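writing this on my phone so excuse typos. first protein, seq and then structure
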Amino acid sequence: MTDDRSSQTAYRWYTRPVLFVADVNRALGFYVGTLGFEKRWHEGNGAGGVCQVNRGECEIILCEEPARRDRGRLFVELTPDALADLRRELAGRAVPAQETWWGSDAIQIKDPDGNELLFPISQ
């Protein structure tokens, strides 16, 4: 078998993380109302337990499954200007955030279910 990596460039890998939440409407309130995402779709004409939120090229699927206790962690890289804007938004909306270390300095935001968004701080 040969290793022909040139054929791999014809395909685009598209990913959307799934975060498990206890209450999808509470999670929507946080992601849309607090973090400024927009609701892209919501199963069951808005009555279902799965939806997607978007902000820029960041797309997250929220899945209501109260029995799941695991949490996710997303690493979201922003340009320096976008990071500065995010900092201003967080301060203006009084979003609980803290600086942490995860291989580099980062801003950490936790959703109501303990899922984490980490935004690396460029040096």
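second protein below, same order as before
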Amino acid sequence: MPHELDQILISSSQPDFADKLDELHNKLREEARFGGFDKESESENNRQEVLDIIRDVSKRKYEAVREYTNKFDKEDIPPERFQVSEEQLQQAHSEIDKNILKIVRQAIENVRKYQKEIYLGNFKHPGIKYTPIKRVGICVPGASAPLPSTVIMIAVPTQVAGVKQLAVVSPPRYKGDIHPVTLAVCCELGIDEVYRVGGAQAVAALSTDEVVTGFKKVDKIVGPGNKWVQTAKLINFGYVGIDSIAGPSEVLIIANEKANPAWVAADMLSQAEHAPGSAVLFTDSQKLAENVLTELKKQVNQLGRAEATIECLKEFSKIVVFENMEGIIKWADDFAPEHLEIQCGEQSRSIADQIENAGAIFIGDYSPVAVGDYWAGPSHTLPTGQTAKFFSALSANDFIKSTSIIEYDKEKLAESAEDIIRLAETEGLDAHAKSIKIRQQK
């Protein structure tokens, strides 16, 4: 009997195969932000509304922030409650379950160790000076469930880089406030600037000086969020730095006949449950493809949000059967996924070595995305929607900037003076040439 999920199983031999993958990418890009080159009027109108919010906050400061928070989050936050107090942070920290705190501390240590090992600032070069960004804003999505991993995966890399000022923003959606576990993790990390605001108005606030007395705009805004947050980050890029335009979470799984279909299905569902979230399987085994589809049908009904997850699978997910692994590798590299899992037995490592475009690669049957989300060490803030072709995983290196150091003495300049003068005169920049000539006069 046909099942509604049967539609996600396709073959690379289908004449419209490439079109189907392009359609999937376009859907994911549309979920990331409003506007674009060929967007319908509703999307353009929403983008204009984001721009209006940013302008309004810039003009009316906190009064605008308060109004939008009331409008979108149904909470009226007076100025004195805009920032979470030190007392509340300490209280949340003291009341958090001690076992959870122990786990949080180990996760922090894992991330800190990894980030220190890859930090460019550890390497010295006479021609480059590395300095940390001074002030960073971190967007933490609001939900009834806490999201402490987001705080850990962004704040720890900033601290390894030497950033001294961190401002966390999160909407007051847990009983009219920020979830206490999120606050407890902020306290554990020594973050004392936490604000009850989310959405486009949070990005606008982070980009504006003196929203409330003493508040300073940040130099860079990072972190996940919905279309409103990501569009606001995009509009503000250039006034502040940003990490990337993060769309729906996604996983591409490359698997052969040696993979466990139940595990593959479970990993696909772990992304689809984000709703929206994208889960794609590339395989050269028709049998595995059919078995994974069977497992999806069985496992999805065991989830609390089965209906929403099924719709997400239908809208943003695919199981694709290829003729060979060569075709899989080619298409996977073009797919440039946020998370790439490779479950191909002893071939897994060699396949990973052939992939250039991915936010993070998880090799082998025992490396599901959840390991990276919470524990392994690399940040789980990763490029989505094919942007892994030009963006990288967030790391401590995203929070330092390099300054070139140039120091010539009289003899060194004399050696190159004529060549520099000729290049300057070729470009018709006489003053450039004269700045060299004047130093060569006896």
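The chain has a mean pLDDT of 93. thats all i got for now
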